[in-house]
């Protein structure tokens, strides 16, 4: 998972989306798409609530605006953002959701059926996902609204809360307030009264001691209604002086439950055994309490019960509390408790994996350390969990988490690098992010400096895996390390990897950053006329205007020590002057680019020149085409193989077909003539694969020819694996033709 790029998870193009939503005049289909993109961002496994709120600042305002739209599709997708977030973030999302409750209730009374249904379903989903007294209070406040649809929705939500919420949440609300809400419902007529009775029945089940008082408050309104309500109260015909029923088997554990309850609740549990087995608040709260018991035996049994809950798919349980407690005690002081937690984690990793992301990377480190434990039962379970996680989560995402792990233990380092190797091999886009490659190189470098020989060898192998994905990014990541780390790393490559050593030697010649002396000082007579004395320094050059510099460019190129940034700026100015092949300014600019190409000794400068000149290959003028071709040839001949390949592959993205064909021909010459091209084979293959479907037949032909030429210089099996079967066959056919010609 490229965390540096994530729209991407970590860097979505939020400005465009917010701008789209800001303007209500924007085509509604574009706003719909923007809302769906926000949903996609929310749905990603590694999106945190903080990341969501920071990425989409003022998103609550935008959602409010969209909820007021007249189109049901816009309203529906806006509500979906809230429901996805509630499912993902649970109770931590309640403050955000509370902002929209009142508006959703207003929408539930809409005359547009689609909007009304979306709003009603949305409120119910939010309540099901978030067990929060804040949301429940906000919902109950809407019982004062006049529209009957709103009252019915409030009543339905209230009934769900009374039957499904733990008592600990309901207790935070004033019971008198709850009773006043029920009273409103049961005193209404029709459907609402029936729903109100259901609420009363659920309330009396939860708070039997309050029901008589409530019925007495109804008598002045309607004696008949009071009698109806009285008949709804569940009675068990229990004589308070008798003992518990003798025909019910009660386990020792159940007796401990009864000890904590008042007599009425205890008896009710005893005679309604199924209620006991599925009672959310009692079972869960007791398990959580026992999980923290000082006696390890009690803790172990508690996690054994949690395992049963997880295996039964956690019906009627708030599993986040279970997961949190399991993660806490995976570092328990007693080995049997740890093992019980590990067994729970196996199920969680398999069936509830999304709940674990909040505990990465700390949890990953703990499991990794346990996987090395000498106790076989512990290490086996830890390895099973690691396997489940590696199967479940995207490798790009896991790489970021594993690279965050820090340990001084040699065994952990070695195991960590092995996992990184594996993930690099199966990763998709991780290695194509500069940020990720720098992170990888820094991590491996630090582990090498502190590690044993086996750790160093393993780290170098991991870098070779990264090179298989993106050779340039890997080499650049090494070269951007601090000087001392870079030197040490190069020595390790020299000792343990001929492949990396050779690539680094060739690549580093042209890619050393911050080089000041990037322009060759040529001893020759100044033919252009000097406006600077030789003693004048770089600062004097910086005071000159671009016109002054360009009018005496050869002088500055040969007499001043120019930084790469200055040459880059000159190239940018000249590229803007290349408006047309028929323009005199364009011809002057081309001559100046030729001068830079002639006197430059830095491949960084030459890569910049390639980028500009390759775009000119589509000009119609044959004379200028010839001039551009000559300059390009001169530039490429001077370049290191790696830099030339980088420059050409980058330029292919920007070229029109005539230029594209020419650049492919240059690439083919490099493949034919340069001996170390095999280092870059995979990178070339991946980039050229994109052009197989190009509409221009000559481009397609040159692509296949280049790949066929390359096939003879690389590991065939690994190289051909990049392409599908029909592409492989085509490359092999052309390779045979080339071999016949060469023969």
TrEMBL record:
Q: Which GO terms describe its molecular function?
A: microtubule binding
Q: Name one GO cellular component term.
A: spindle
GO biological process annotations for this chain's record?
Answer: microtubule cytoskeleton organization; mitotic cell cycle
Instruction: Kindly give the Pfam families that the UniProt entry links to this protein.
Output: CLASP_N
Q: Which residues form the TOG domain?
A: 2-238, 275-492
| Domain of life (superkingdom) | Eukaryota
Q: What Gene3D superfamilies does this protein's entry cite?
A: Leucine-rich Repeat Variant (1.25.10.10)
Please report the name of this protein according to its UniProt entry: TOG domain-containing protein
| UniProt source species | Stentor coeruleus
């Amino acid at each position: 998972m490229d965390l540096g790029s994530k729209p991407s998870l970590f860097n979505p193009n939020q400005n465009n989306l917010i701008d789209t939503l800001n303007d209500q005049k924007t085509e509604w289909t574009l706003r719909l798409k923007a809302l769906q993109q926000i949903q996609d961002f929310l749905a990603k496994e590694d999106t945190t609530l903080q990341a969501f709120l920071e990425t989409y600042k003022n998103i609550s305002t935008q959602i409010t605006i969209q909820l007021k739209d007249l189109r049901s599709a816009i309203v529906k997708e806006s509500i979906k953002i809230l429901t996805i977030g509630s499912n993902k973030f649970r109770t931590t999302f309640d403050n955000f959701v509370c902002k929209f409750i009142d508006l959703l209730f207003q929408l539930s009374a809409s005359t547009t059926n689609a909007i009304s249904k979306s709003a009603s379903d949305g409120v119910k989903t939010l309540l099901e996902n978030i067990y929060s007294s804040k949301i429940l209070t906000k919902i109950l406040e809407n019982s004062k609204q006049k529209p009957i649809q709103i009252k019915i929705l409030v009543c339905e939500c209230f009934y769900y809360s009374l039957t499904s919420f733990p008592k600990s949440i309901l207790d935070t609300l004033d019971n008198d307030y709850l009773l006043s809400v029920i009273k409103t419902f049961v005193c209404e007529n029709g459907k609402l009264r029936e729903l109100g009775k259901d609420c009363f029945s659920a309330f009396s089940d939860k708070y039997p001691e309050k029901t008589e008082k409530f019925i007495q408050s109804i008598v002045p309104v309607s004696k008949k209604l009071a009698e109806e309500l009285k008949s709804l109260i569940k009675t068990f015909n229990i004589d308070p002086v008798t003992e518990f029923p003798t025909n019910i088997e009660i386990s020792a554990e159940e007796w401990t439950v009864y000890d904590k309850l008042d007599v009425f609740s205890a008896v009710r549990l005893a005679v309604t055994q199924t209620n006991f087995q599925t009672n959310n608040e009692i079972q869960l709260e007791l398990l959580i309490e026992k999980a923290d018991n000082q006696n390890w035996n009690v803790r172990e049994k508690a996690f054994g019960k949690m395992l049963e809950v997880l295996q039964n798919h956690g019906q009627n349980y708030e599993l986040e509390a279970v997961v949190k407690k399991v993660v806490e005690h995976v570092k328990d002081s007693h080995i049997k408790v740890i093992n019980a937690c590990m067994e729970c984690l196996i199920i969680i990793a398999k069936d509830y994996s999304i709940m674990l992301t909040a505990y990465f990377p700390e949890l990953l480190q703990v499991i990794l350390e346990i996987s090395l434990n000498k106790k076989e039962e512990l290490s086996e379970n830890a390895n099973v969990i690691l396997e489940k996680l590696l199967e479940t989560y995207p490798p790009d995402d896991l790489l970021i988490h594993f690279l965050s792990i820090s340990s001084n233990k040699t065994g952990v380092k070695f195991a960590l690098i092995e996992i990184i190797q594996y993930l690099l091999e199966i990763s998709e886009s991780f290695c194509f992010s500069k940020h990720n490659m720098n992170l990888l190189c820094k991590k491996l470098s630090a582990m090498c400096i502190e590690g044993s020989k086996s750790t160093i060898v393993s780290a170098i192998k991991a870098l070779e895996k990264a090179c298989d994905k993106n050779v340039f990014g890997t080499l650049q990541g090494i070269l951007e390390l601090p000087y001392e780390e870079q030197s040490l790393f190069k020595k390790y490559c020299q000792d343990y990897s001929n492949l990396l050593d050779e690539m680094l030697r060739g690549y580093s010649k042209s890619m050393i950053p911050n080089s000041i002396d990037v322009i060759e000082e040529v001893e020759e007579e100044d033919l252009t006329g000097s406006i600077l004395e030789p003693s004048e320094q770089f600062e004097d050059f910086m005071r000159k205007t671009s016109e002054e510099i360009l009018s005496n460019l050869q002088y500055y190129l040969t007499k001043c020590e120019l930084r790469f940034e200055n040459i880059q700026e000159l190239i940018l100015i000249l590229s803007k002057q290349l408006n047309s092949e028929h323009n005199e300014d364009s011809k002057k600019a081309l001559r100046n680019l030729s001068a830079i190409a002639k006197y430059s000794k830095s491949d960084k400068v030459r890569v910049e020149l390639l980028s500009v000149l390759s775009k000119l290959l589509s000009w119609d003028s044959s004379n200028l085409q010839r001039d551009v071709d000559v300059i390009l040839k001169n530039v490429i001949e001077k370049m290191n193989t790696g830099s030339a390949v980088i420059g050409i592959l980058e330029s292919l993205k920007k070229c029109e077909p005539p230029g594209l064909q020419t650049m492919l021909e240059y690439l083919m010459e490099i493949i034919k003539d340069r001996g170390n091209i095999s280092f870059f084979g995979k990178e070339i293959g991946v980039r050229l694969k994109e052009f197989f479907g190009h509409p221009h037949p000559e481009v397609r032909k040159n692509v296949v020819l280049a790949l066929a030429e390359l096939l003879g210089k690389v590991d065939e099996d690994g190289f051909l694996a990049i392409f599908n079967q029909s592409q492989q066959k085509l490359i092999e056919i052309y390779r045979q033709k080339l071999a016949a010609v060469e023969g």
